[in-house]
Amino acid sequence: MARVVAVTNQKGGVGKTTTCVNLAASLAATRRRVLLIDMDPQGNATMGSGIDKNALQLSGYDLLTKRATAQEVCIRAEAAGYDLLPANGDLTAAEVELLNEIGREHRLRIALNSLREEYDYILIDCPPSLNLLTVNALSAADSVLIPMQCEYYALEGLAALMNTVEQIQETVNPALEIEGILRTMYDPRNSLTLDVSAQLNEYFGEKVYKAVIPRNVRLAEAPSYGLPALKYDRASKGAIAYLALAGEVVRRTGLG
Amino acid sequence: MARVVAVTNQKGGVGKTTTCVNLAASLAATRRRVLLIDMDPQGNATMGSGIDKNALQLSGYDLLTKRATAQEVCIRAEAAGYDLLPANGDLTAAEVELLNEIGREHRLRIALNSLREEYDYILIDCPPSLNLLTVNALSAADSVLIPMQCEYYALEGLAALMNTVEQIQETVNPALEIEGILRTMYDPRNSLTLDVSAQLNEYFGEKVYKAVIPRNVRLAEAPSYGLPALKYDRASKGAIAYLALAGEVVRRTGLG
Ligand SMILES: Nc1ncnc2c1ncn2[C@@H]1O[C@H](COP(=O)(O)OP(=O)(O)OP(=O)(O)O)[C@@H](O)[C@H]1O
Ligand SMILES: Nc1ncnc2c1ncn2[C@@H]1O[C@H](COP(=O)(O)OP(=O)(O)OP(=O)(O)O)[C@@H](O)[C@H]1O
Ligand SMILES: [Mg+2]
Ligand SMILES: [Mg+2]
Q1: Which of A201, A228, A253, B236 is the most buried (most CB within 10 A)?
Q2: pLDDT of the residue at A254
Q3: Which of A14, A78, A7 is CA-nearest to residue A40?
Q4: Which H or E run contains B20?
Q5: Are strands A177-184 and A143-149 parallel, antiparallel or unpaired?
Q6: Mean pLDDT of all residues in A237-245
Q7: Confidence check: pLDDT of B255 > 70
Q8: Average pLDDT over residues A162-168
Q9: Ligand 1 atom closest to Cα of residue A221
Q10: A12 alpha carbon – ligand 2 mean position (Å)
């Protein structure tokens, strides 16, 4: 039975997609069966996994609007090493089409029921907003993983995100937990980073992952080759940090 | 008659808010009358201008839903040095309330008509998505200023942004121009930055600003004091770069 983790933060550019692609690759490298779901119309997780978002036959749009099943939409991202439920700009249309539908928040959760047995981990990359696509991801998930740049605007946005998580717990998904808070683009020489990091530890305690992702140019270069850092430069600090995160995620979820 | 510029890019974390706050402060420092409009429910431009988004009497929500006029909502951001039309999470409700209204894309444009004579520049900070709030900003604007991190996902997203601009030009705002493309968080030692920058120059030519914003920690520190970099550390590389941008914007718009 898969553990479904929504990787989310409405603050833009904090490393959601980079975390999804590299955590998926790291979990797959430790012989777990992994599915990455791209719920962002930008289609960055799709391109970052080496799949051309402009050449898709089927995508998340078809899944959410019930034009196709999850089995039909899922593809193998060979180079990256895991399965992918791809997305592109069409996903924006799904949001509009679902707005007046009954049970619109549960489309993804229901569609995933048939897949849960086939995977150990399902990761969902969310867009930078608290819209219906993000709500679908939060409704389908067992837990949320929150990438956090250690900077002011990202810290400031955490209160709004926690509010949304609470609203989801009170309505569409009472079992939703916080998987963890991940510090990304971490630069220990910078006092702002250290200040914000200290506040995260104070507020979230154990929920803050010990694994920290450093700022590492290899993580920014890898997507232009459609590869996770693990495949692009396995000795890079970025690839090693995400392997450490995968180890921590596995230990914490106790799936062994 | 004010020049209205929408600062937009659906890619998250590219420096939209940082550009709005610091360009507004730099234009104001050269004795121009400036209004900054925060159209992002995150309320980052509001907090970055030293105004507590959680203590607002009125905000962009009241303007878009016609509960208040622009004159009533606008406030003076004293420490930052310009006027502000503030925002907070309520703005998300405006989006939902407007969805079925006739002329929903033009609410901001109509509301600004009464203000245009009072300012030389009106800047609009957009959220990281191509939603109704961004469409309102593009409909109200004379031009778009596009902050761009010189990295793969940001470059990849430019095609979708250009499509949206074209759709706006064909429907709600035929006069919309491209004000310019601004390279942000620029690190000349990094070959990825140089590659992407070369592609921008090839594709956009003259539209790419000569002014380039370097990665500079002062720009990330200033918002926690509710100040633009110009007021927080006027000698910093970030503050100087935004002053150079303001000079280029003024020269290009010919407002002298
Ligand atoms: N640890 C890191 N070191 C260096 N660059 C990074 C790191 N993590 C992410 N990046 C780069 O920073 C940019 C933002 O990261 P990414 O796109 O993953 O964030 P995001 O939260 O998914 O953004 P969005 O809000 O647009 O979905 C990308 O260009 C990415 O390549
Ligand atoms: N030139 C720079 N040097 C260093 N840090 C920067 C620079 N520009 C922006 N930042 C920091 O990077 C982060 C992202 O910038 P910012 O929030 O302005 O982007 P944005 O495009 O407005 O994000 P969003 O998509 O969430 O609205 C912020 O923490 C900001 O302080
Ligand atoms: Mg992303
Ligand atoms: Mg912003």
Answers
A1: A228
A2: 79
A3: A7
A4: helix B16-29
A5: parallel
A6: 98
A7: no
A8: 95
A9: 31
A10: 9
Neighbours of B167 (CB within 10 A): 13
Reported as a single tens digit per residue, the pLDDT across A106-122 is 999 999 999 999 999 99
Interface contacts (A, B; CB < 8 Å): 80
Q: Evaluate whether B39 touches B85 at the Cβ level (below 8 Å).
A: no
User: Mean of the pLDDT values across residues B51-76?
Assistant: 97
pLDDT band at A256 (very low <50, low <70, confident <90, very high): low
Q: For residues B21 and B36, is the Cβ–Cβ distance under 8 A?
A: yes
**Do A196 and A151 meet the contact criterion of CB atoms below 8 Å apart?**
yes
d(Cα A49, Cα A225) in Å, to the nearest integer?
9
Mean pLDDT, residues B212-225 taken together: 97
Name the β-bridge partners of A83.
A35, A76
**Is B223 within 8 Å of A153 when comparing Cβ atoms?**
yes
Rg for chain B, CA atoms, rounded: 17
Residue B256 predicted with pLDDT over 70: no
Ligand at shortest distance from the CA of A157: 2
Structure tokens at B5: 């510029």
Q: Smallest Cβ distance to B13: which of A14, A99, A131?
A: A14
Q: What is the pLDDT of residue B1?
A: 87
Chain B, nearest residue to A159 by Cα: B42
Which two three-digit tokens encode residue B195? Answer: 């590659």
Range list of H helices, B58-208: 60-64, 70-73, 91-98, 107-112, 132-140, 152-156, 158-170, 191-204
- Residue bearing the CA closest to ligand 2, atom 29: A151
The span from the CA of B62 to the CA of B73, in Å, is 8
Is B11's CB within 8 Å of A11's CB?
no
Tens digits of residue pLDDT in B124-141:
999 999 999 999 999 999
Distance from CA of A254 to the nearest CA of B (A): 33
- The pLDDT value given to residue A82: 98
| Structure tokens given for A3 | 């553990």
Protein residues whose CB sits closer than 6 Å to any atom of ligand 2:
A 11-13, 128, 149, 151, 153; B 12-18, 40, 44, 128, 184-185, 213, 215-216, 219-220, 223, 238
> What residues in B contact A128, CB-CB < 8 Å?
12-13, 128-129
